[in-house]
Amino acid sequence: MVFFTSLDKSFMPTEIPKAYDPKTVEQGLYKAWEESGYFNPDKLPGKRREAYSIAMPPFNVTGILHIGHAVLLALQDIMIRFERMRGKKTLWLPGTDHAAIATQNVVEQELKEEGKTKYDLGREQFLERVTRFADSQHGRIVEQISRMGASCDWSRERFTLDAGLSTAVTSAFTTLYSDGLIYRGDRIVNWCPRCQSTLADDEVEYKEKKTPFYYFKYGPVVIGTARPETKFGDKVIVVHPDDKRYAKLVGTSFEVEWILGPITARVIADPVVDPELGTGAMTITPGHSFEDFALAQKYGLPIEKIIDENGRLTEAAGPMKGLPVKEARKKVVEILESKGLVDHIDENYIHNLSVCYRCGTPIEPLVSRQWFLAVDKPAKRLGNKTLKQRALEVVENNEIAFVPDRFTKVYRHWMENLHDWCISRQIWYGHKIPVWYCETCHADQKKYQAGKYYWLPEKNTPTACPRCHGQDIHQDHDTLDTWFSSGLWTFSTLGWPMVKDMGFDPALVDLVISGKKTKTFRLRDHDLSVGETCLTHDSKTKKKFGYLRILRSTKIPFNEIALQTAGHEPYKSQAELKTTFQKYYPDITITPDTPVWVYEYIYQKESDLEQFHPTSILETAYDIIFFWVARMILMSTYLVGEIPFKTVYLHGLVRDKKGRKMSKSLGNGIDPLEMADKYGADAVRLALVIGTTPGNDQKLDEQKIAGFRNYVNKVWNIGRFIAMQGEGKSLSEAKPETMADYWIFSRLNTIIQEISNHLVKYEFSQAGEKIYDFAWHEFADWYLEITKLEGNVALAHQVFGEILKLLHPYMPFVTEALWRQLGYGKDLLMIEIWPSSDPSKINPAAEKKFAELQQTITEYRRQRKESGAPAGQVMSVPVPTGLAGELKPIIERLAKVTFTT
RNA sequence: GCGCGUAUAGCUCAGUUGGUUAGAGCGUCACAUUGACAUUGUGAAGGUCCCUGGUUCGAGUCCAGGUACGCGCACCA
Predict the structure, then answer these.
(1) Assign residue A896 a region: left if phi > 0, alpha if psi is -120 to 50, beta otherwise?
(2) Is strand B within 7 Å of residue A245 (CB)?
(3) Using the CB atom, is residue A630 less than 7 Å from strand B?
(4) Residues of A from 204 to 243 whose C-beta is within 7 A of strand B: which are they?
(5) C1' (B25) to CA (A770) span, angstroms
(6) Which positions ≥6 away from A845 have C-beta within 8 Å?
(7) CA of A704 and C1' of B25: distance in angstroms?
(8) How confident is the model at residue A187 (pLDDT cuts 50, 70, 90)?
(9) CB under 8 Å to A398, separation ≥6 — which residues?
(10) Does the interface predicted TM-score (ipTM) exceed 0.85?
(11) Could you report the per-residue pLDDT of A418-446, keeping only the tens digit for each?
(12) Of A229, A247, A204, A255, which is closest to residue A361 (Cα–Cα)?
């Protein structure tokens, strides 16, 4: 344990208010932290070899901070602050996600209130509006994250749609496509008729609903269905091969009377049919059922589209074309009824209705031409393993560990059953699929068949088809699944794929490295945007010398270049700059109006990707393990060839007092910001972390937060007391002298060890509880009470300093405020060195003696109480045998007794 | 159907590898208060650790079976 505090000024206790008022200090402290630069790993003091990084789950731009976010921020901030104090080079990278469907829905809702639809605006205008909305949300999100005290590096903040991340998305798509893992195909997909888009399998939710289940006479068999409206084209009956009831029919064809008149049906046998279910015979509808589609592929059956993208019937329904599903169902049943083909109807059938996870609309499975990511295809890059196999392997062999461990099983189960991922969406907002189509080639059927009418351009906006040079080309109208870009989050935010390169004059290289040059002018756009990292080389030797992370990118006319601003050395005049330019850009004529790109950057010897990837831990709620966690593992293991994180810590959901999910419609949500206003951010953080265990939901009510507000205030008053005691005294030399001193020293060193162990093992609740208890019920209740008698204020001051460090990750605001008030050090508590336990200070004898003292005092107090002695009166008791002289006054005071001889 | 979680004080929950008398916060009851803190202090009451069986010198903890509540996945002709 290192004590280095010195106190040479007198305290002015009157300056410390009686009650802690978070409002007056929190904002200022956050600003101080931010301005210190210590959120940024590059600016942390000292040599920090080991990196520690967390990618903050990107917040949806739709959202306002809810209690779940607050949990996430509290936990991650604890991890980051702890590791920062332990001397690691800590990066916590924040950002936002465009959340395509969710965001688009919000804007569509706004439009609806104005009586408009997105089609009224058209794609371009609509997108402008969505973008405006997303931008307007940004500031608020940042403010809310800050409000909770999150010590994340804002200089590295990213947005899934920013230029750098879009490059990453394109690059990812291109790589996967070139490696044959992304393909385009006509397959059955989940279609949301309201969102007008496909959904991935895990974006479909199931709701139980009672629907009639119909039994129809279909030739010689009776078939059951919940969806009569899809049955127009059913021509194939499937039965189980071992089902004796139908054995004679297998392989035969016959004519049956059906919805639109007689059709020819045939019978096949396949083991997928469950003979126990319904009548044991079914007809198949390949165009609108996943199972039937698989069967149709197996037997080469035709696939007919009965329902269109708007949820209406197609030509296949003959006269019923255009009818919405609901009405069509009624009509079909009526027709079959009139033909006497209804066997019976089961009205009590419980159906698992599939609905869209974003809007609740029933899903229509239908066949559509979409883009897919093949998860079961052997990939060269993975040594002929599939994406799925690799993603399972890294968890199986413990490269990635889940906390709590049980989620490993959940993950494995999901991954094993994963089908090819449909990645194209018909949502407008998002990353457009980077594929271009040529109408001229399309018109040529042969090329169409060969799939050669589309290509992936190298540059973003091609002007002509590379094959026929025709100009009638357009980009794919679809966008990528939001989770495609979030799947890249751990590495796309760290500068992957680093395709951009910039040369520097050999004379400047040293200046760049030393940080004397932090700005560069270019006549050609390097297409660099804020947050991106670019590789740099010496233009003479072509040797790589490091990386630049772009802080600002602007375009100005040549004559507006301000050479006087910092960081642009070594040019002394515009003429000199012009000469330099001319040397590197001999083909460009420089006029005063020539546009110049100005890049401001910081130099990094190692790129963020090299330093911070794989990230140390991913912390998020367990409900997005599939959507996000699994996708990141798939993407990272393939594209970067690295796991995205070493540990996945999953927290539970926050529920209301009654255990219900918090939701807008129930109005039972607890707003973390309102709570922070009322009780302070520290109290909110403590309430969300203490008394909870990973992976388990927690019930929260305001009382709990109020309770921790009391604790924060207690800590404040401990500080206030020490300040008052120490007024005017020199506190620089602290030595344990009395038994109580040795005891508190011993306890402190024990507790340091325990807390550090808990934190390393992600036992945040237990670590928090222990330090909470130590500060209040050992240090304040016992040690400080004795201090009033013995007066070793210097020691109290020092021990409290250590307590502040231990508490800091949990309650950063109040501890930082006290650190300052009590004059512990010039620099911020947030970068103090985490206490280390000194085993030589652990003193079992002192602990034992003190425990006996505590027992004695408690016993006297109890006796007093039982005897009903009046409050003010001191009770006389005989001196116990063997009482050490030094303890006498302590007992007399704390137990309010007086010893008679 | 498959898998998972939870069950401990009135309430909300901790309880690490099995080890004296099972803990905390809130709530309850009683008492205290002119100097750190009533957002406080002191003391107390309060438990068949869901049930049954097993392993063990010893089980809240491990094993088997069951009950209740919750969740995920699948099926859904």
Answers:
(1) left
(2) no
(3) no
(4) 205-206, 213, 223-227, 238
(5) 13
(6) none
(7) 8
(8) very high
(9) none
(10) yes
(11) 999 999 999 999 999 999 999 988 888 77
(12) A204
